[in-house]
Structures are given as C-alpha cells and as structure tokens.
Amino acid sequence: MEYIGTTEAAKLTGMHATTIKRWARRNYTTNSQKILKEKTYTGGYRYKINKTFLMENFKTSDRPSSALSRSDNDKNIINAMQDHINTLKEQLSEKDKQIELLIRKK
Question: Does residue 4 sit in helix, strand or coil?
Fold first, then answer.
C-alpha cells in the first residue's frame, strides 16, 4: 500500500490541502487502516492517506467543471501580468517622449 501526505494528495486531486486534511481528520476513525495519523513534534497531527483510497473518494468528476488546473490558472495570471507590464512600458515610453519635448523647448 502506498501512503502519501496531504500536500501530495492535494496536488494529485486538485483539491486544497486544507480540504484534504479536514477530510482525513473526519474519516480517520472509520478508516484507520487507510488513513494513518502521526503526531508531530509541535503537538499537531500529520495524515498519510492510502493513494488508492484517496482516488476512490476524490474522483476528478467531484471537482467543478469550471475549475481550472493550477497550471492553467498560473498561465492566465502570467499572461495578465505580461499584458499589464507591456501597457506600463508603452506609457513610460510616451512619458519619456513628453519629457524630451519639454527639455527641447527650454
């Protein structure tokens, strides 16, 4: 049996890590063979989840169809930022031209 941590489980399912931790905490008592609970040095708990059990409970069809994958979302953010940067560069170029004209008039 392969067990994975909540961070890896979140990446695998596309769900948020907090959602996975909450789900593991709620399902631990009835599925202690499939969800392992380890105490951390800070007094909290770390969950390890059986990968097969996780995938049975978090099928990709459980996610909203409108949800973007992280990489798609990252690409959209990068494109928006690049567009904004290009706009700022154009504005800066225009301001430089205006300053140059003002200097020449003196």
Answer: strand
